[in-house]
Each structure stands twice: as C-alpha cells, then as structure tokens.
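Protocol step 6 of 9: fold each sequence in the batch and record its structure tokens directly after the sequence line. For illustration, a two-sequence batch is reproduced in full.

Sequence one:
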Amino acid sequence: MCGLTALMLIGGLAVADQSTASWREAINKSDVAALHQLAGTGVDVNTGARYGKTALMLAASKGDIQLMHRIIALGADVNQVNRSSGNAMMYAAQYGQRQAAEVLIQHGADINHRAGKGWSALMIAVLKGHSTMADFLLENGADPNVRDVLGWTPLMRAADAGHQTIVNILVNRPDIDLNSRNQHGQNALHIATIIGTTSIVTALLDRGIEVNVADSDGNTPLAIAKLKGKTQLVKLLQR
C-alpha cells in the first residue's frame, strides 16, 4: 500500500511539473489560449516565465479581461513584479489596455508602483503616447509629478516626445507641478524649446510655466531658442 501511495505521489508531482512547464511555455509564447486551458488545473498562476513575466502580465498586455478575471480568482497577485520590477499595470499601460488597467485597479493594484528606472505606469503610458490610458490613470490616482531616476516627469517626457494631447491633459491637472526640473536643471519648457514644438511651448506658457529659469548650463528657454535660431519660439518666449 505504501509503495502504491508513493507511486501515486510521484505521478502527481510529475503531472504538476508538466503543468508548470506548459504554463511557463505558454507565457513565453504569448499563447493565451493555452493559459485559458491550463488555468484551474492546479498550476500556480503566479508562476513566472522568462524574466519573471506572469500570466497576469501577459493577459493585461493583451487586454484579455476574461483570463484576467479567471486567474485573479485563482489567486493571481496583481502587484507581483518581474525581474525589472514591472507589474501588470505597467504592461496594461505599455499596450494602452485601459480595461485591463481598470480590472487591476478594482483588485487593488498599486497604480503608482515604480519599476527599475523609476518609471510608473503613467510614465510608460506617456512614453508610448497612449493619451486615453494616461488620462484614465490620472483620474484614478496616478501621480502626475512622479520623477524617474533622471528627474524627468511625465510632462517632460510628453514634451520631449511631442505628445501634444498628453501635454494638454497634464498641464490642465490642478495638481501638476509645471516647474519640476530634471538632472540638467531643465523644466518642461526647456525641453519643448529644444525639441522645437511650438504648440507645446504655447501650452506651457499659457499655463504659466517659469520662463526665465536657467538650466545647469545657465541657459533659459529663450537663450536656447536664440542659440538654435528658432525665430518663432523666440517671439513666443519674449511675449
């Protein structure tokens, strides 16, 4: 009887190991159909695959709401992180999956968690140009003034990338700090002037950003505009 019990135990462990291996393989291959089949078979849904990516992170990136609900019910940790400290909310932000972000928030995800570079989900949404996602995150408590390891804020990143719609969303936030400065002493106006996006410079000026502040090299936005020969920006900054 003991021998039979031992064999059954070994067989059960072998099946469990195979299920775990199949789970990891499905994540690595972005095979959500396989995950749907494997969920509920006894596999630990928090098992990470390559680089610590979980099934929930994959489901969030794909916007597979059904799979998300299912594995969360089976114990998936909405705040689990990968090897870069990124969580499922960041995957949703990267791919503009607003509904996925909503599910995560409903289940207690930390909207302001920061990954290795100091990036939050909002910063990622801004970098990817996902204006709807950025607006959604802000309306649900994302910090608009979060700073990455280089001191850059979402507003600076939006200005640098030329994302006009996101700049407009950010500058109209009552809690926005327009005058945050990065590691070079630049505010968002310095950055917009360097990039040369007239509409973004105008939006920042209209909201009252500091115009005469000098960066670490002693240059104001006006000085930068003159150095770069950007006549239209010089006129705007002198108004």
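Sequence two, same batch, same settings:
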Amino acid sequence: MDLSIVIPLYNEAESLPELKAWIDASLKDFSYEIIFVDDGSTDGSWEVIQQMAGPGVRGIRFRRNYGKSAALYEGFEAAQGDIVVTMDADLQDSPEEVPEMVRMIREEGYDLVSGWKQHRKDNALTKNLPSKLYNWTARKVTGIKLHDMNCGLKAYRADVVKNIEVYGEMHRYIPYLAKNAGFNKIGEKPVHHQKRKFGVSKFGMDRFVNGFLDLMSLWFLSRFGKKPMHFFGTSGILMFLIGFVMTICIVANKLYHQAHGLKFRAVTDQPLFYLALLAVVLGVMLFLAGFVGELISRSSTERNNYQIKERI
C-alpha cells in the first residue's frame, strides 16, 4: 500500500464526508487507506465514520478526549502504508498537496516533509503573530529550519512514525522527535491553507504557553535525558562554588578589618552571607538531584534503547 492517511478529529462531523471525497479525488493515482481517529467526539462524528467505513477506510474511537498526540499515536500504530500522511479534519489542509510531498520523499530522499502555511487564513492577532513567535523559538531551540513546525499536513516515511513516541502534547514537535530518533532529512513544502468551513477551532491561546513548556521539556530530555548529572551536577557545583567563594570573601573581609582595627560588621549581620549560604545549599540540592536522576536513569528499562538503522 502506498499511503496511510491518518486524520485525528474531535467534533468534525460536518467536515468528514467532504474531506473523504476530496481525498478520493486528489489521490486517484495511489493505493491508500484512511484512518479516522475520533478523539472522544460528542457531535456524531463516529456515526459518520461508521457510515463511511469499508475497504480503505478505518476508524478508531476513544472513550473520551485524550488530545491530538494520543490520536496520532494510535493512528501511527495502525498505519500500514509505506508513507504516512497526517492532516486535520477541518478542511483547512488540502489533500491536493499530498502527491508532491510523496514525490519529495520518494525521489528526493526526505524522511519527513512538513507543510508550510505561508498565507494563513486565521485571525492575525490571535493565531498568526503567536504562531510566528512560536515557530521562531522552535527553530532556535531545535535547529530545524521549518517555518511551520505545527502544521497538521505532513508526510513521513513509515519508519519515522514507527520509531517515535508521540505523547502528552508533543504532536507539535514531531519533526524534533524524528530528528532525535536519527531521521535528519526533514523538508518543507509551502501548502495552500483554507478557511475553516464548519465549527470552531479546538485550540485556545493556552497552546502557546503549553507548547513552549513542552519544547523546553523535549530539549532537556534530548540533551540530558540519559545523563542528568551532566546538567544538575554541573549546575550544583557551580552554585556551590559561587556560595563558597562569597562566604570566604565575607569572612576574610571581616577578619582583615578586625585585624587592622577597622570598623567591621559581623558576618551574620550581612545579607550577602545568607545569600551565599543559600547558594551553597542550592548547589548541594542540585547535585543530589543529579545523583538521584542518575540512579533512576540507570534503572530505566529503556536505558539501552537505541535507534538502529540496519544490520548485516
């Protein structure tokens, strides 16, 4: 089978028949399956999927709303195509872009091709500007030069989605997950963005705050997930040394003034002394946190879980 089209959805009953017809019209030259993942919809979306189910159309239904990452994870697990395509169910992603994305993977050797909505049809204040800031931050942190990392329209080699784990709210950073798994050839294709035809967006402004926190989590785990002492130990030692040197300077200054008959303040009367003690205590705590992290990492069942490309 050429393609698996994974479509996560939540309360998109009105869009689904039109989306399926659009996919069928756009992908006539491919063999493909469509996997609808209903993330706990309450508007009858599952009934619509049941009506469309048949050869080439499958459905997965959650008992409750788990989020887009969970829906993509289950869709990836079920996918059987050589190339896996993801798109949103709200008719804002165009299936007509898929053939070119597939060509880029097959002929140009990309592991992943992400859509780039150059001309968004969303509200400029609530979506466009925050999205630009979010993507700029993501590029700086991940080193992946994508203009629109969170675009729902993406195409992957099957190996990519079978070797990454999408969880929490990490669907925003699948290219970064792929890069950390060793899939480095990541491309981008400008795609046409449609206005939402039915319903309303399921994501609020809080996604930008949560997205930044998730990005920091991913960055930390990719850098220090298997070597936490390198972060906490280094920070702890640095903090301890700062506090220790400050304490020595304060005590030495007091002894010097005392020995020369100069006016001096008691060490315990100086606020800087307590800041120095705090730095020493924080340094010890950070070092211990790194030590505990190492113990946890060494006992993890995935401590020797590596991405192997091939064997001979």
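Proceed to step 7 once all outputs are recorded. Observation for sequence two: The beta strands are 3-9, 32-38, 57-61, 83-86, 112-117, 154-157, 186-191.
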